[in-house]
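May I ask you for just one protein sequence along with its backbone structure tokens in two labelled lines?

_____
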Amino acid sequence: MLLVTAFGISSPLLAANEAILPSGWDPSVTDAVDYLQTELEQEQAQQGINRLTAQISSLVDTELFVTYVRLFDHLDPRAQTTLKREQTDWLKQRVKVTYLAGQKEEGGSASSMESNYAFADLTRKRIQLLNDRLKKLGLEAGK
């Protein structure tokens, strides 16, 4: 009985240490981003450009999330706490930078596009930084 109780108490701890992403599941948005980028190159209307850059930004942010989770899964609890705090601070900074990028257009029709470009650029740089950390852990980026 005592053994069953002890196992029952430790069971949630075992589950907490499991990776979030199941082994072999490697979601990617690269093909969708590439397609939208091709569409963007052909788009002439500002409204269409704004819409496409927003979609690209959303997909790149999704890729950041997957990369973040991948890294988070391979860290000890103390490093996970540090990464979460760092990511929270980075997200706040990204909001500020993208807002300022849009303000350069003074509210014009291209302000959304400029914000979206800044958002995607910053996010891609963050993905690279997190992928570099994964490589230092001996893991492939995107794996």
Observations:
- DSSP finds five helices and no strands in the chain.
